[in-house]
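One thing: could you explain this record?
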Amino acid sequence: MLRVVLYIFFVPFTIWALESININGIFKKNRYYQSRFVYLLFSLSISYLVVNFFMDFFTATMIH
């Protein structure tokens, strides 16, 4: 359940953070949808890494 809450928080946060990067500059002209798809993949990938980091951190620091 905590993992889902973290995903709900971090996916929009990474989308917001990646908006500062002009990713369209590395694509050919008129490739808007491909650039948006890569943008979405970057956002999901970063969110996955961040959520897994926090889950590992929470489980490692829990006192049993």
In short: The chain is about 75% helix and 0% strand. The mean pLDDT is 90.
